[in-house]
Predict the 3D structure of the following.
Amino acid sequence: MTNFSQCRTDPRRSHFTLENWEDTVTVEWDMIFREMGEFAPVNLGSAGYSGYDGVYILQDARERCQAETGLQLSYYSNFNASWFHPDRYAATVAMIAPHRVMNCTVGVNFFHPEYAKDGRPGRRCSLGKERMNESEDEREEYVRATGDTQATEEVDGRLVLKCFQERWFVAPSCRGNASNCVAVVTSGAGWGLHFMIQQAYFHNMPLAFASAEWEEYIDINLEFQPLSDRFERVTGGHTPPEVLVAGRLSDWSALYWWRPDETFVLQRGMAVVFPSHSVSEYKAGIYRTSQKELTLRKYAAAGLDVVADRVYGLAENLNIGDGDMANLLYLHAQSQAVNNGTAPETWDTACRWILSNTDAWQSWVPYQTVCAVGKGLVDLQNNFVSLRSEAVNCAVCPPGFASLKSQSTRVCSKCQPGFYQNSFRAAECLPCEPGTISSEAGSHHCTPCSLGSFANRSGMLACDRCGNGSQEELWTTSMQVDVYEETTWIQVQGASSAQFCFCVEGSFLWQGRCQQCTTGSYCRGSNQLEVLPGYFSSSVAPGEIYKCLSASHCPGGKPGTCTVGRDPDSLGCSSCLSMLRAKDGGSCGECDNGDYLLAVASVAAVFIGVGIIYYVPGLCDGTRVSQPGPLLITITSVTQLLTTVQILSVVHLFDIPWREPFASILEFLKIFNFNLDVLSIACLTPLDSLGEYVLRVCLMPVLMLVALLVHFGRLDTNGYLLFFHRPMSLRNLKLSQLFRTIGTIFMIWFIIVFSLLLEPFQCYEHPNQVLTLKHMYQSVLCNGQGRHMHMYIIGGVACAMPMGFLVFCTWIVLVEIPKGIAQVDTSALDAYFFLIRRLRPGAEIFSVLFQVRNLFVVLCPLVPSMSGKIVALNLVLGANLIAVVYVLPWRSAVSNFLDVVLLCGLLGITEMAALFVQDVDASNDIWVIMACLSLMVLGILGAVGFGIYKAIRQKFRKEFKFFLCHHKAASGSMARLLKIELQNRSPGSKTFVDSDDLMNLTRLFSYVAQDTDTFVVLGSPAIFTRKWCMGEMATAFTNEVRTVLLAWPTMVLPDEQFIENYRSTVPDIKELTKFGISLTDVRRLGEKLF
């Protein structure tokens, strides 16, 4: 291939070639032309005459042969050696000195693949360097076509033609006497040999072929002419008589030649006629027939039609026939002969021909109004016109116009809409490329389609709108690009097809229309919707965005994507696939041994928890008058902890976007919300949303049933078991303890139970405006139909449990407890002990108020707005804090302090929640929440630790060595003196005297029961009529505190009648009932004393 980087850069001096042989424009030339592009020469068509090369016989030889034999040597059949001897009329090998022709190595056996004249007159030019292997292929071609294996031999491993005298290739018909073969001399690298040697073989022609240098080639073929021809060629006159000799005057030659060429034109050479050209045989490499008559073409330099259009037109119109060309060549050769062999200038010969052949060339000259390509007709005002009759000249077509053919001339015509031309001298208007349009005639440029439109064909007048013209504001044209290794989408103008049509950023394509992206999705302008983490949409309805119960369930990405193991057919990936359970990280996996163990352990924990609730109160009271001790602080702290955890669980239902680590803490607390996924219940039985809800609703009845089983399991074996002893009374069943256990369970889990029952009443609006139940039942549509209606009814009916419990507690506090106090009988209050045990006397109403508080806490998530939820919860907790600080309802000061700490912590958390709801940076505020939570945890741990420490301490050392029970009016002074004396005798010990040590009346009896080593009664005469003294003595008696009675001489022990009439004797004894001391307890004490 030609290297165009090496092309000459000097000015071009040759602009036309008027004689280019058709077969020289090879495939390689076509490749070069394509590589040159707009700089490639322009084909102007045929020059009017044809070309032919092959074996020629000159005129004199033909005439002599015809005169002597009547045969013409111009026919191949007359060369047949089997019946004719053409060597008698043409020069033979013997007549030519061997040194005058080239050696076979550089001649016959050096066939050039492309035939060249190497700068000398001839009809072909070389396109590349000679290649030895291709000449060998042509020798093999000869053997394949003819089967003449005797014509070749191997030399140095190469196949070569055998040559006579190392100069001549001899045809088979004269190999027996090569010297007498007719000599056919060619030139160059064996021009024409590849087909001439086959023609000689096929037609039995006695020819020998050799190649000579160009000058030698001419001399050899001119020398073997009649002497008169040679003399005339030299002198231009007739042959003198003295040169004539007897016999043959000379010989005539056969030669390789071509036309048109002036070298042998005076000798009137005629080509030997072979059978008509066979295209099929030539394609097969068989050259038995004649060469093809070839068209001679004209070529012009690129751009010449612009800079010299009339010259270009003249060359384009030039057309010389074969006869005119032969006469022109003869005229040129004759001029050379007349000038004593000096070749005339070709310009001179051309001028002579032009002057004598005016009619032949006048039609070639373009008229003034025959416009060339790139020009058009103009009138006197230089305006473009379309009629030649109105024109006076031609002018260059400007941009927006094209030079179009109009009969024999050209006109500058405006480009039609959809077409353009941005250059001068354009021959045609160019169609607007896809992506661009021109709506007006005469456009010199095309306009790119705007965003949201495209042109998918060339030559369009208007752009098509994306989306068929609808939703124009939602359509654009864009393409994907990579920027810094990241893929992004950019908007582009000039879209060439509908494939560039995309919905604008913020919308996606669905069912042929652009849909707006909603909350939870991202549309980058690629027609695709990407779901953000924490949201979900199905693949069949990608625009229906649901917020997931947990961000870990929905990783985002393509619609229909869930975390591993989760069901993409469930709303928000809320359910696991069949036979799978929820795992850490939001995924679902197969149940393993640990899951089954956890499920079984959860069931076992229910029994253990109920058993603890059942037995711990018994440890604390023992008997009805057992006073609260240090263990009560621990129990109260634990219940306060559970209440706080449940309130935090309700706060978690607010769906506030908490940050870590508080978010994980709230997620962990879901275990206290009876979350069955956490407890691996799905491994025991698969449940849908309705089944899971029913199971959670039935959890409280199940706990009651477990309490019943624990209770009957505790009954002794003295014939009171239900299934083994029929005569059984309610008293024997000890139902008060069972009732206390069930009541305690309700009080502890009131918030959680009521909260889960209200879940069917809480709906959440997803970004697609579809309502579903919140949290664990997200797969249930909140539409009052189907599963939702079933859950609605079940929840509404089940709400009767906590509401009934609240009403029942209210009835107990407002009716039953006052009645028991009025009757001075605590036995009726045993079953209600769970309500008032932790509260100080007089604050019993707080057992109801705390449940009312819990009720309002549960109702807070039902408030529609987020701010309303937070405000409502703050109001409830704030009112609770004020009441606790003002009343101090708990029996223990530690419990009151802990309750204040917990409430302040909760208020701090809910106050900070507002910062997470707003669009502010709350990254630092989470530590405030964690500080509040830490304070609450430390308070609970401190209270529990304090209660345990005090309980252990009381086992080894009481706070008071002596407790002095006395009647102030009768023995106050004695009590003071005794205290001084006891402390002097026992240094480091303390003696309790109410006027010195009693700070809180509610703790009076607990001092006796838990903090006293020796209980001392100062027995003045009226001490048995003092209610507080009787209460102290009854407490000491019941708790088996060591007691010493110091009787006054006038003291009288109570008798049986005094004990029976004690209520009327001491009517305000009923006030002791608030402290768990009944009239029965007092009578037992009297009986003991009596």
About this structure: Residues 112-135, 227-251, 618-626, 717-728 have pLDDT under 50 and may be disordered.
